[in-house]
Every structure is written in C-alpha cells, then in structure tokens.
Amino acid sequence: MVKGISILGSTGSIGRQTAAAASRLGIPVRALAARRDIDRLEEQCRALRPSMAAVTDEAAAGELARRLSDTDVRVLGGEESLTEAALCPDCDCVVTAVSGSVGLRPTLAAIRAGRRIALANKETLVCAGEIVMAEAEKYRAEIIPVDSEHSAIFQSMAGRNRSELKRILLTGSGGPFRGWSWEETENVTPEMAVRHPNWSMGAKISVDSATMMNKGLEFIEAMHLFAVSPDQIHILIHPESAIHSMVELLDGTVIAQLGTADMGLPIQYALTWPERCPSAAGTLDFVKMGAFHFEEPDYSRLPCLRLAVECAGAGGSAPCVLSAANEAAVAAFLGKKIGYHRIYELVDGAVSALAEGGHPDLEEILRKDRAAREFVNREIG
C-alpha cells in the first residue's frame, strides 16, 4: 500500500472517491489539485489537511489562499502548480484524475521522480502513450490503471508474462442509447446523454460513454498500457457492466475480472496494489443478475467509436487530435452550443485537417492539442 498520495483533480468524481478511499484506508493525502472549484477544494483541505493545494485558475487560487489563511495548507496557482502538487514531498503515489491533456506534464514529472501513477487521466496515454510508457520504463515508475476496464485487464494479467496474451476483450455497456439508430440520436440533449444506465460519472465522461468515444479512447489507452496492436483488442458490448474486461491467452483460456459497477474498486486497488483490503463496494449478486449478454458494436451507429479505432491504427498525432477535439466539442455540447451529432462532425473534421503520422515529440503533441481545440472553437464560431 502507498504511504502518501497527491490527487490531481480532487474535486471531480474520481478525485472525490479517491479521497474517500484514502480516508477509509488511512492513507495520508499530501496534496490536492483542482481547476477552480474552490468551495469543494476548501472542504477537502479542511477535512484532509494536505500540505499543499494547487488551483490552475490563478484568481481562484488567490481566493482559496485567503479562505485557508487560518490553516497550514500552502496554496499554489497556475497550470504549473499541478506539477508541484505531483512532486509534493512524502508522496509516493500520484492519482491523475484531471481531465484532458493538462495532466500530461505533471504525470511525466511524477514518473521521472519514480512515483506510482494511479492513472485515471486516459488522455495522457491517448495523446502521448509512446513517450509516457518509455519514460515509465526508464525511471521504473509503476503505472496502475484506474479505469475499470484497464484495471480489469491489469488484474486478469496478474502474474502472467505479456507474451502469453493473445488479445484483450474490452467491454462496454453501450451507454444510454444502446440499440438506438444514428438518426434516433439526432435530438439527444445533454440531460439525456449524462444519464448512464450503470455508472455514476462526471458529465464529460458520461457524454463520451453515450457516443462511445470513451470506449475508443480506452482502446488507444489499452494499446499503450499493455503493449498490444489494434488487432489484439476486440470491443464487446456487455449491458450488465459486471465483466469489466477480459484477456484471452495463447492457449484459448479467457480470464475475466468481475465486480459491481463501482469505481471505488479500481481506485482502491491502484492505492493498495499488490495488496487487497476490504472496500465499501457491494457484492455482485449473480442470481439477481440472472444472465450476461454480449453483442458486437455496430460501427455504423457509433461513428465516434469507429473514428477512434481508425485513429488508433493511424497513430502519429491522430489520437491526440481526436482527444483534444472531442474534449472541446463535448464542452460545447454540454454548454448547449451545438447538437449531439455535431460532436462527431467536429472531431472528424479536426482529424482530417490536422492529424499527421510519425512519432511526434511532446512539444508537437501539445501543439496539435491546441490546434485541435482552436479548430473546433473556430468551426463553432
């Protein structure tokens, strides 16, 4: 079990659940970081007593410092403060729960410091998987996935050599519009899209689950985490969300990880690995569930998923452009500036206009990230 953690993105869904798990397990929280939700961040600071709190919005950081002037918490502001929080003293694990490519630099800094990364920020690997995994190997930093699917694969491969792996069976519920035609989703509203049938998640990831872009991003993330080719990953729709993913070994054996639809489980395991501890999660009731169902994804109805898989095969800067454009488009959709179908159209347009092959370095990746966001915002007007 880790001895002290820093939570980047502490006020979001994953961050809050991580703080709860740390409190239950008796793991000290050394640093907290958020964008601008200082009301919740102040509550967390007073409850958890970290030595440091980072706020990327500098004006909000100033207000938080004023509010916490009666405590010993040091408040930092600006995007670079995320890296300082990741390198907080007495911290041997960084939970990266921020959304978007903003998590890339602090994650790399923590890797180079040899710290465990409890990875909940999939964009880090989607945008710069080759760089991140090479640095993790160089500095012998552990990367423990927090996404339920990647945690399931990680657990299913425990004690096995990766050379034994034939393919990954990546499961997904199908989201709230499973079975709907593309035409039927035209008038989907943000309120409809965030109602996931099984999981309680933040708004952005809920929309990604509705379009199944999230599964596409997970596809790319799995390629890097487990060093497999696109041909070694097969997506399966599994509406019950009980089997979080599976691995098929060379001899045909399939190993699955099952559990309740509770993100607290993979979060806790990333903090306690390789140990197991009691959790707050419920018990999976097989009798009540009755049956498991599986189906192939219909890519004609799921253009975002199809595009993501295509970008996975293309490599280069395509995954980065895909992720950044999607983040900007989903934000516009949640702000009711664009319709549901426009998400795909904008992301597809950005990929067509900006994606290039090769092996981009970190600076090129960050340039492409900015360019993709600018493309989407310009198209929206």
Please give a structural write-up.
The chain has 381 residues and is α/β, with parallel strands linked by helices. The protein is built from 16 helices and 11 strands. It has a 7-stranded parallel sheet with strand order 4-3-2-1-5-6-7, with helices on both faces. Strands 9-8-10-11 form a 4-stranded mixed sheet, with helices on one face. Strand 10 (243-249) and strand 11 (254-258) form a beta hairpin. Helix 14 (318-334) runs antiparallel to helix 15. The longest helix has 19 residues, at 362-380. The radius of gyration is 20 Å and the shape is globular. The termini are far apart.
- Given helix and strand content, the structural type is alpha/beta
SSE series: EHEHEHEHEHEHEHEHHHEEEHHHHHH
- Percent range of helical residues: 40-55%
* Order of adjacent strands in the largest pleated sheet: 4-3-2-1-5-6-7
Runs with pLDDT <50, length 5+?
none
| Average pLDDT level | 96
